[in-house]
Amino acid sequence: MRLKHLTLLALGGCALFMAACSSDKPKEIKPNPLPKLVNSTVTVHKLWSFRIGDGNHGRFLLLRPAVSASQILVASSNGTLEAHDRATGKRQWRVHSHALLSVGVDAGYGVAVMGTVDGRVLAYASKNGQALWTASLASTPMSEPLVTAESVFVASNDGRLYALDRLTGKVRWSVDSSVPSLSLHGMAKPIWVNGTLVMGTGDGRLLAFNGKTGDPLWDTHVVDSQGRTELERMNDVDGDLAVDADTLYAVSYHGGLAAIDPDNGRHRWDYRLSSWQGIGLGIGNVFVVDEDSVIEAIDVSTGKSVWKQSDLRGRRLTAPVQLDGMLLVADFQGWVHVASALDGHWLGRSHFYRTGGFQSPPVVDGSDIYLQSEGGRVVGLTLQKSR
């Protein structure tokens, strides 16, 4: 469970947290042993690896690489930012911001951006690491930034969403959202859908805004929680949102998975489960890892379960990614697992790090996969099918 990473967002929250932990805290789930591989048909091949800084340094940070056509950008919790050649893993440049990071890096349109504990957003030129601008927010950034052609979007600890000018860092607009008294650490990265900016909130909603002006467009709950206690009613939208041609997908903690029309916020279907991880898409399914690390495939058209895979229950899996009919997840002990996206049976697995396993979602671009471990190890991978 992720309860040790709860963040309190209101005065008096500490007393609430103490009471909740003493009476309502669920039991930790013992991790399942690794399932036997009867016939391994996929090899997880390492292209290169390197280490950056001190990794997460014991803090809960979902740091992951940002990928462009020719490079990847990675950050460590102590504010180090590096650019590496995507093909070889060779470092191109490094800068030290000397600031504790609250969220990791996103990059695009020549800019790499990250957020700090003391409420700043820092921007650097992705070409050479030159400092471009610093924006000061009223509160700590809590969502990974989203870089678009005109703006950098980031949500902060007080529930405010900021649109910053990509070239100068000046605030183009900002809007408030409600903040619950008890919340999981972090917020979902905003997503850009055809000129609309969509953000998830700590109280289980999706909010949509005109990306240029900040004007509100629609507001919907993902799936409401039905708990009896305050812990059970926590309803954060923390995992990455996903979008295909005409549907937006979101999942909430103690709530469920929803397929939503991005034009108006209307639900096409809902499916009840609990997850704080992001969503994978492919071959007509939505893939989700629930709070117990059970993997489930849901049909995108009907919202019905296609299959479940519970062999890795309790192993604190990352969000899933789908690649060429294969589903990839990583776990807290440094294993990378590959299953069939069709039915969930195991195809292969590899072990990379004995300490500092994986929390952050894998990043996929083309046929390449990138993972960043809690200990600061960054690895580039490909999947090779047996002939």
Would you spell out the secondary-structure blueprint of this structure?
Elements: E1 6-8, H1 13-23, E2 42-51, E3 66-67, E4 71-75, E5 80-85, E6 91-96, E7 101-108, E8 111-116, E9 120-125, E10 131-136, E11 146-147, E12 151-155, E13 161-165, E14 171-175, E15 182-184, E16 191-193, E17 196-200, E18 205-210, E19 216-221, E20 242-243, E21 248-251, E22 256-260, E23 267-272, E24 279-282, E25 285-289, E26 295-299, E27 305-309, E28 321-323, E29 326-330, E30 335-340, E31 346-351, E32 363-365, E33 368-372, E34 377-385
Antiparallel strand pairs: 1-15, 2-34, 3-4, 4-5, 5-6, 7-8, 8-9, 9-10, 11-12, 12-13, 13-14, 16-17, 17-18, 18-19, 20-21, 21-22, 22-23, 24-25, 25-26, 26-27, 28-29, 29-30, 30-31, 32-33, 33-34
Describe the model.
With about 375 residues, this protein is an all-beta fold. The chain has a domain at about 60-185: Beta Barrel (Lipocalin), CATH 2.40.128. It is built from one helix and 34 strands. It has one helix at about 15-25; strands at about 5-10, 40-50, 65, 70-75, 80-85, 90-95, 100-110, 110-115, 120-125, 130-135, 145, 150-155, 160-165, 170-175, 180-185, 190-195, 195-200, 205-210, 215-220, 240-245, 250, 255-260, 265-270, 280, 285-290, 295-300, 305-310, 320-325, 325-330, 335-340, 345-350, 365, 370, 375-385. Mean pLDDT is about 90; it is low at about 1-25.
